[in-house]
Amino acid sequence: MNVTIKTPSEQDKMRVAGRLAADVLDMIAEYVKAGITTGELNQICHEYIVETQDAIPAPLNYRGFPKSICTSVNHVVCHGIPGERRLKSGDILNIDITVIKDEFHGDTSRMFFVGKPGVQAERVSKVAFEALWLGIEQLGPGKRLGDIGQAIQEHVEKNRCSVVREYCGHGIGRVFHEDPQVLHYGEAGTGMELKAGMTMTVEPMVNAGKRHVRLLPDGWTVVTKDHTLSAQWEHTVLITDTGHEVLTLGADQR
Ligand code: MF3
Ligand code: CO
Ligand code: CO
Fold first, then answer.
1. Domain assignment of residue 254, yes or no
2. pLDDT tier at 252, thresholds 50, 70, 90
3. Ligand 1 pocket check: which of 38, 49, 69, 78 to mutate, most ligand atoms within 8 Å of Cβ?
4. Which of 156, 118, 138 is nearest to 202 (CA)?
5. Helix axes of 8-28 and 38-47: crossing angle, nearest 10 degrees
6. How many domains does the chain have?
7. Ligand 1 in contact with 147 (CB < 6 A)?
């Protein structure tokens, strides 16, 4: 495994990229309303990243991905492609933003509700959010990847939801997806030991029903096999000498 340790100046660049990615989510929140299409959300984010932030939307053309952000609505687990779909009241969606600034990536996603969410929607989103933070709390020097996976899996399954296994968190830096793979399930005390200067994402995908997923013929869109709702939250995090620093906190979390 080729895990990079970021120097102090690289860590500063990761802080900037992380902040910019979070700023995009703060900016787009007010546009997430019934009647807008996911393609329009993509366009607004694209212009903000390129023109206001003077940054690069990392998904665009990444392994052939056609848009600048991912929008994953209802039973879409991740990697939803923005398009003609018009949001309607009761929809839930994840917006996933990755920007490149000064060669470094910042990657973060949140759930949004269109109008008032149903009981199940609110529950799966809440469980995913709590799972993200339980995972983040585990991060620190000397901790192991399995500690994060177990914390997340335990919480999700205790709440009668399931953890998607086919996709995971990842090291991040000059490269969008670098080592290590950060699984959202596993056993405490196993896996790679974390060291100060590593940067990685935690991004659990939580299904209201069974964990199994299916890839649509577009080659990107991942959906739940049983068509139950799915939720995801993501932060980019730096391991520090004393613990961790979340690099993608939003305005109301700073
Ligand atoms: N942002 C996603 C992640 O959290 C990756 C999206 S890849 C794309 O890792 F090509 F779909 F944009
Ligand atoms: Co990610
Ligand atoms: Co992401």
1. no
2. confident
3. 78
4. 138
5. 140
6. 1
7. no
